[in-house]
């Protein structure tokens, strides 16, 4: 299984910290799976101009093709102005409408206050559903107070991240089994 952990911002450290923690959890618990970190701060991406994702080159091509090759994607995003950052929206714009068909997507959100939890429900999940993702129903919401010196210090958050890693792999396995049974119904 290929899992991509996408840190969807080019500024700040909290989303990267949380996404790196998820990568660490996945690699330790599921060493048989290929886990790739895509931290958007590490890449120079162009703005979407309507081309197919495979027509781009450089970092943009690498990031979009890596996402498209994944079986599961963990999206880490901060909350900026009660919304997702433009860098993450650009990723969605670079990909085709059905980019997440047959892919499982789980979410980690960082925010300065608990009042921003609705961003996931009202903005991010509808985008993912539109792009045909199988969305892991629970997500991990991490507030400013849960971090200290670029580390997660809340044990409950660490437990929820561990559970999200398990749920992501289990849901991906379940959907793979469902697809295999459906494919077996065809005789060609």
From TrEMBL:
<protein>
    <submittedName>
        <fullName>NAD(P)H-dependent oxidoreductase</fullName>
        <ecNumber>1.-.-.-</ecNumber>
    </submittedName>
</protein>
<feature type="domain" description="NADPH-dependent FMN reductase-like">
    <location>
        <begin position="1"/>
        <end position="144"/>
    </location>
</feature>
<dbReference type="InterPro" id="IPR051814">
    <property type="entry name" value="NAD(P)H-dep_FMN_reductase"/>
</dbReference>
<dbReference type="GO" id="GO:0016491">
    <property type="term" value="F:oxidoreductase activity"/>
</dbReference>
<dbReference type="InterPro" id="IPR029039">
    <property type="entry name" value="Flavoprotein-like_sf"/>
</dbReference>
<keyword id="KW-0285">Flavoprotein</keyword>
<dbReference type="InterPro" id="IPR005025">
    <property type="entry name" value="FMN_Rdtase-like_dom"/>
</dbReference>
<keyword id="KW-0560">Oxidoreductase</keyword>
<dbReference type="Pfam" id="PF03358">
    <property type="entry name" value="FMN_red"/>
</dbReference>
<keyword id="KW-0288">FMN</keyword>
């Amino acid at each position: 299984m290929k899992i991509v952990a996408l840190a969807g911002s080019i500024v700040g450290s909290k989303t990267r910290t949380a996404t790196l923690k998820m990568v660490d959890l996945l690699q330790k618990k599921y060493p048989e799976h290929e886990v790739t970190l895509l931290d958007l701060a590490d890449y120079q991406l162009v703005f979407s101009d309507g081309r197919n994702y495979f027509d781009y080159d450089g970092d943009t091509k690498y990031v979009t093709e890596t996402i498209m090759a994944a079986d599961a994607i963990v999206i880490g995003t901060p909350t900026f102005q009660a919304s997702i950052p433009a860098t993450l929206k650009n990723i969605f714009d670079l990909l085709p409408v059905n980019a997440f068909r047959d892919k499982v997507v789980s979410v980690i959100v960082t925010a300065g206050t608990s009042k921003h939890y609705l961003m996931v429900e009202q903005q991010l999940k509808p985008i993912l559903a539109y792009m045909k993702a199988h969305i892991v129903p629970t997500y991990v919401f991490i507030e400013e107070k849960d971090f200290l010196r670029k580390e997660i210090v809340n044990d409950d958050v660490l437990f929820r991240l561990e559970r999200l890693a398990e749920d992501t792999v289990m849901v991906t396995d379940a959907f793979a089994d469902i697809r295999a049974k459906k494919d077996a119904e065809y005789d060609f």
